[in-house]
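Tutorial handout. Part one gives the primary structure; part two gives the three-dimensional structure as tokens.
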Amino acid sequence: MMKVFPAIIKELLTLVRDRAGLLVLFLMPAILVVVITLVQENILELTGQKNFKVLFLDSDQGGLGKLLREQLASGNLELVVQDAKQARVGDIEAAVANGEYQAGIVIPPGASRRFQKAAARLLQPDQGAARPQDSLVTSLYLFMDPAMMAGSRAAITGRLQNALAAIALEVKLSMLSKTMQAALDRLGVPPGSTPLANEKLAVLFRQPLLAVTENQVGGQSGGVPQYNPVQQNVPAWALFGMFFTAIPIAGSIIRERTSGVWTRLMTLPVSPLALFAGKAFAYIGVCFCQFLLIALIGIFLFPLLGLPAFIIATKLPAVLLALLLSSLAACGYGIFLGLACNSYEQASTLGATTVVAAAAIGGVMVPVYAMPHTMQRLSIISPINWGLDAIHALLLRGAALPAVYGDFGRLFLFFAVCAFLAWKLALTRQ
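Part two.
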């Protein structure tokens, strides 16, 4: 340890002088996590997983608008009700066309009267078939933002159609109940003697018989936060930045080799493994500082931007162990690059390419489950995926420590293989 400690000090002093390198290591992942999280949050909104802002104008003022508002109140449509005395249909259309709102719903004048009249005609078959000009359908106006994605349009249209179908069913049941009661009265049946002849009919049809209860799976507990882009991106981009430390580690070794410092170090009674350990310990501290910076951004900055705060559940020691092993893997890869490449250009190009590729297939840019099947199978070769999967299992799924032993083992094995190959290369370069 006495030989490792000076190597740690030397690496930290070298890193402090490299201000451009520090800027890349800390500023790049910080900017990326903010930008990518904001973009993904907006995508959730566009695909219907967030609330839509919808203008609502009731030019009818006849009761249909109130029923529709009650039906839409429990969905993901945030209704912005307009004053019927001041707003016009053209105003709603213009606001939606300009992108100020995702959609606009207008109930035209006389809609309630036509709706009730059409419902009454359904129970009067003796009048014959309706003529085309006497359509039973009462149309409402729906305006959609032209730039809205197809999935969002379908979500809003489907929610509105379900609400209208529920209103129509309520009115039909009410009128059917009255018709049946009138028929029973003509037959001399006392009122209320059967539940199918009064207001109980509507209650009967509204009563649910089947329901779905969502249960927590695996080791989840109440302290496990629900998935959101913040919980995905904070550890993902922190790991991305941590693996980028491979480039300055490789650069440090290559500078020592080209300047002759490495040759002089090899003449001293110091094992290459001691020098590797000094670099690894120094940059493990850098990796933890990177994660701390990204976590603080998630905890304090994201709520100011309208995003959920990043939450670390009760498994902090296990998360720290995952970070330690991920840092070791990143440092081992950097040491291997430093001895396998002959110039800084080679190391930086190869290091940046491989780290970005590992991040892409490892679930940093896009969650693994959203990738094509072939890419999902390839993700298992990415060290970033091993660390990310372990952290997500701990933070999002509430998994116990034994559940992530496989990922921990792969990370340590990757570090050990890289360190062994670097040691063999160091011996051949003496």
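Part three, for discussion. Residues 150-186 form the longest helix (37 residues). The domain at 51-122+138-206 is CATH 3.40.190 (D-Maltodextrin-Binding Protein; domain 2).
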